[in-house]
């Protein structure tokens, strides 16, 4: 039986169902809304995440670009650094190569100068004059041949141009005119060219004479300008060397002076004047170069220039200054006409007069700082004292050398050849010791030591000048040179330079001179040159002086203060003269004055530069 429900219960159920329905409907939109919100949030999140990813990628790309740029810059910087390093290394290598080349060139120059000095040392005056004349003739002939070849080449080119021009003109006229005319014209032009060439050949002789004179005048003028430039440079360098106190600067200046002196000597030999007009100048610049080189070696060793060396520089500056004045004036006033007059030997030419003034009034050759009075007294050409002596062979020369230099403890002595020194025939002997190589020359007749040289390091001073004199005296006695007296001493750094002269009955014979070098560190002789003694020494009768010492002194300047005197024999006018030697001072300077013991005339005067270390004649 169906249960009946009251209306009130139905209403309650209906109300309950309605509420659930409403609740369900309400909950569904909420869910939908929730889903909608979730989608919106996801979309927003996606929208937000997408730009962040884009920004990060761009930033990463920028960072990568910057990194690549930085790496490229670093690479470029490294390449530049490498290039700079390579450039510096190349520059350094170039500098080292340049220094090596300079040293090699300087060594070659030193070798050439050594060979030249050896040649000049063993060459007579006549042979030297003949050699220079022959060299000058050879140079002139070479220049003339060169100019003639150039003139012939120019003439050939000119003829070729004329021929080509004639052919072109003939070809052009042949095209322009009737046939046959061009051939005729070419023949006429060819004939003209041939005639011109023949005329040139016949007239080239007299034209070439004038042309050659003009060319030679131009060359000599150019040489004069070169000499003027060198003298100007010497003036500047000598002026700086006078006041420079820096070793580096002194090395540079002295190197330039040595090189420029050699260049000046070469140009002087090319001047179109007699050698008598350039003899003193050539000797002066030669000695100036040698002095500069000697000072250069001293400074390079770490030594300081002595007072005498500085005085030598001052003297060379003063003489060069006067040379500069006269040569500058000659350069500014010389003309091609004057040069041709000099080439022809005209006595009234400006060049002859100017060089004559330089030779006679200006230039006095400075002696080396180890030179003394009459140190160049090798006038004789035959050794009279050796003429009667027996001639030795090479084996005997080796035996004698071994005996002479026994104290050096030679391990090997060998004859390397022969040489001629001032017409004196000698053997060249090489001597080997545990301390290095040595070299000596022995005369064929008599076996006398003419020259001895060796290289020993000498950087300190352990022996006094007085002790060096004793060492050198003993050395000469061992070589058979007796009765030798030290007449001149000087010091060059740690080397003592001594001049010895033969003494007989209290009279000093300056022609019989031997030069000796002693190392003040080791106390040994490192060099000797005795050519003057070997050539000049002989038995002599001194004779009596016609004037007393006081009578001779009465002829001196009253203001000259005599400090010492002795009787000597000196070389004078190709002969020997008995003279009193007076040493004294005048005006603060020291002088050596020689008065003829027969006539009382002053026959020689030397100016002296004195230092604490020694003395040097100028």
Note down, in words, how this protein is organized:
By secondary structure, the chain is α+β, with helices and mostly antiparallel strands. Helices cover 58% and strands 19% of the residues. Strands 1, 2, 3, 4, 5, 6, 7, 8, 9, 10, 11, 12 and 13 form a 13-stranded mixed β-sheet that branches. A hairpin with a 2-residue loop joins strand 9 and strand 10.
Structural class: alpha+beta
Give the terminus-to-terminus CA distance: 173 Å
Number of strands: 13
Mean pLDDT value? 75
Helix content: 55-70%
What is the N-to-C order of secondary-structure elements (H for helix, E for strand)? HHHHHHHHHEEEEHEEEEHHEEEEE
Low-confidence stretches: 23-27, 29-34, 176-211, 365-370, 610-614
Show the helix and strand layout.
Blueprint: H1 7-121, H2 125-176, H3 181-243, H4 247-268, H5 279-300, H6 307-333, H7 336-343, H8 350-362, H9 394-404, E1 410-421, E2 424-433, E3 436-443, E4 449-454, H10 465-478, E5 484-492, E6 495-504, E7 507-519, E8 524-529, H11 531-536, H12 549-553, E9 561-572, E10 575-586, E11 589-596, E12 602-610, E13 615-617
Parallel strand pairs: 7-9
Antiparallel strand pairs: 1-2, 2-3, 3-4, 4-8, 5-6, 6-7, 7-8, 9-10, 10-11, 11-12, 12-13
Q: Which properties best describe this structure?
A:
13 strands, 618 residues, alpha+beta, extended, single chain
Short description:
The chain is of the alpha+beta class and 618 residues long. The protein is built from twelve helices and 13 strands.
């Amino acid at each position: 039986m169906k249960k009946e429900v009251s209306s009130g219960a139905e209403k309650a159920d209906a109300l309950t169902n309605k509420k659930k329905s409403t609740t369900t409907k309400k909950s569904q939109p909420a869910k939908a809304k929730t889903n909608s919100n979730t989608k919106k949030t996801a979309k927003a999140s996606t929208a937000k995440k997408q730009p962040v990813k884009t920004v990060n990628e761009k930033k990463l790309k920028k960072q990568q670009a910057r990194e690549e740029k930085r790496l490229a810059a670093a690479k470029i910087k490294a390449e530049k650094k490498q290039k700079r390093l390579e450039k510096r290394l190349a520059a350094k290598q170039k500098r080292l190569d340049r220094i090596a080349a300079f040293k090699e060139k300087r060594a070659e120059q030193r070798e050439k100068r050594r060979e030249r000095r050896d040649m000049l040392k063993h060459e007579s005056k006549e042979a030297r004059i003949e050699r220079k004349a022959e060299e000058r003739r050879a140079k002139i002939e070479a220049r003339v041949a060169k100019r003639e070849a150039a003139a012939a080449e120019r003439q050939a080119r000119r003829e070729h141009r004329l021929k080509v021009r004639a052919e072109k003109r003939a070809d052009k006229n042949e095209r322009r005119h009737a046939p046959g005319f061009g051939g005729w014209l070419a023949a006429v032009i060819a004939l003209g060219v041939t005639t011109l060439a023949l005329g040139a050949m016949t007239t080239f002789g007299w034209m070439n004479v004038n042309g050659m004179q003009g060319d030679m005048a131009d060359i000599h003028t150019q040489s004069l300008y070169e000499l003027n430039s060198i003298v100007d440079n010497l003036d500047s360098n000598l002026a700086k060397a006078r006041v420079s106190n820096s070793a580096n600067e002194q090395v540079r200046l002295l190197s330039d002076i040595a090189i420029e002196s050699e260049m000046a000597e070469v140009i002087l030999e090319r001047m179109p004047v007699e050698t008598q007009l350039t003899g003193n100048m050539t000797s002066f610049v030669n000695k100036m170069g040698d002095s500069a080189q000697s000072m250069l070696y001293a400074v390079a060793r770490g030594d300081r220039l002595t007072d005498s060396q500085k005085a030598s520089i001052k003297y060379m500056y003063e003489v060069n200054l006067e040379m500069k004045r006269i040569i500058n004036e000659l350069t500014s006033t010389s003309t091609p006409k004057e040069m041709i007059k000099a080439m022809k030997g005209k006595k009234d030419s400006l060049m002859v007069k100017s060089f004559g003034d330089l030779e006679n009034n200006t230039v006095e050759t400075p002696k080396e700082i180890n030179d003394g009075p009459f140190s160049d007294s090798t006038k004789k050409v035959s050794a009279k004292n050796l003429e009667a002596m027996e001639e030795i062979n090479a084996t005997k020369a080796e035996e004698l050398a071994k005996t002479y230099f026994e104290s050096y403890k030679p391990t090997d002595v060998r004859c390397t050849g022969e040489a001629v020194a001032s017409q004196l025939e000698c053997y060249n002997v090489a001597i080997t010791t545990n301390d290095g190589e040595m070299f000596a020359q022995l005369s064929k007749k008599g076996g006398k030591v003419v020259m001895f040289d060796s290289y020993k390091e000498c950087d300190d001073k352990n022996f006094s000048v007085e002790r060096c004199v004793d060492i050198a005296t003993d050395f000469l006695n061992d070589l058979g040179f007796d009765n030798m007296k030290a007449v001149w001493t000087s010091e060059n750094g740690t080397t003592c330079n001594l001049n010895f002269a033969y003494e007989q009955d209290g009279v000093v014979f300056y022609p019989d001179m031997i030069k000796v070098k002693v190392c003040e560190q080791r106390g040994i002789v490192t060099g000797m040159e005795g050519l003057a003694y070997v050539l000049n020494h002989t038995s002599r009768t001194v004779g009596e002086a016609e004037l007393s010492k006081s009578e001779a002194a009465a002829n001196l300047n009253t203001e000259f203060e005599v400090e010492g005197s002795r009787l000597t024999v000196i070389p004078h006018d190709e002969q020997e003269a008995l003279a009193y030697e007076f040493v004294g001072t005048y005006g603060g300077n020291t002088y050596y004055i020689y008065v003829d013991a027969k006539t009382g005339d002053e026959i020689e005067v030397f100016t002296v530069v004195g230092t604490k270390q020694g003395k040097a004649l100028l």
